[in-house]
Amino acid sequence: MNGYNFTDRVRKVLQLAREEAARLHQEYVGTEHILLGIVREGEGIAVAALTNLSVDLEEVKETIETTVKRGASASVAGVDLPYTSRAKKVLELAMCEAREMGHGYVGTEHLLLGVLLEEKGIGAQVLSDAGVTPDAARAEVLRLLGEQFTYAPRAFAIEADQRFKTVTALVELHRVRFGTYPDSLDDLQFLGSRDRGMLTGLRYEKLPDGYALDIVTPTGAKPGISYPADFWRGLGVRRTNVDRSSAP
């Protein structure tokens, strides 16, 4: 965790998350506290994205405070509270998002996406109840970043290539095992919880006769990846932004 370049704003958010945990008499920092830290910091791209997605930030705070049971005893001031496994996963996913976007830093926007992609934590549940999906949040983040977006196409293409091939294999394995393609990538049965970050940056849709699978790029352009005709033979991919000009 310490090896990645967190922005000063993210460091402030994480400090505020610890303060929120202490305020609620908790002995740990969970996904809900990270979300409270994002909201309380109030000026990052994450907050701008949530505001533009019509999220009532005060309602988010109130929902968390009514959902989380206040601890029995106050946390000791200055103690570095441990992160829960879900909170650690949020940080890992945030780093994955930053890497996907070709950013050499983790900003509040990546942290927000990490909260959403973790899925099972209180933070993700509160945002989901507010109508925020990972795809909608990512789209708004990309829009806000606009022309500030710079990424390394070659590095992006290498990682995207690996993800696309791996997920394609898992989708096809799902069909062989269960007789049908998954309704969503969340339904994949052969991916461990620690590997769920692999699904980041891919957009899947089940179709009547197969499925669509796209690589989401920071600029919205094609990913600059192509495969020979033999790669596509026998696969159920009916629509993709990967170059398949040589496909039959």
Can you characterise this structure?
The protein has 248 residues and is mainly alpha-helical. It has 2 domains: 8-148, Orthogonal Bundle (Double Clp-N motif), CATH 1.10.1780.10; 153-239. It has 10 helices and 3 strands, in the order H-H-H-H-H-H-H-H-H-E-E-H-E. The chain has a 3-stranded mixed sheet. A hairpin with a 2-residue loop joins strand 1 (202-207) and strand 2 (210-215). Helix 2 (31-41) packs antiparallel against helix 6 (108-118), helix 4 packs across helix 7 and helix 6 (108-118) packs across helix 7 (122-129). The protein is elongated, with a radius of gyration of 19 Å.
Could you give a short description of this structure?
The protein is mainly α and 248 residues long.
Assign the CATH topology of the largest domain. Answer: Double Clp-N motif
| Low-confidence region ranges | 147-151
Strand order of the largest sheet: 1-2-3
Radius of gyration in whole Å, from Cα?
19 Å
Helicity range of the residues? 40-55%
* Content of β-strand: 5-15%
For the biggest sheet, the summary is: 3 strands, mixed
CATH homologous superfamily of the largest domain?
A: Clp, N-terminal domain
How would you spell out the order of helices and strands?
HHHHHHHHHEEHE
Instruction: Estimate the mean pLDDT confidence.
Output: 82
Question: What is the helix tally?
Answer: 10
The domain count comes to 2
Termini separation (Å)? 45 Å
Q: Architecture of the largest domain, according to CATH?
A: Orthogonal Bundle
Question: What would CATH call the class of the largest domain?
Answer: Mainly Alpha
**Which structural class fits the helix and strand makeup?**
mainly alpha
Number of strands: 3
Give the oligomeric state of the chains in this entry, treating copies of one chain as homo and distinct chains as hetero.
single chain
Shape type: elongated
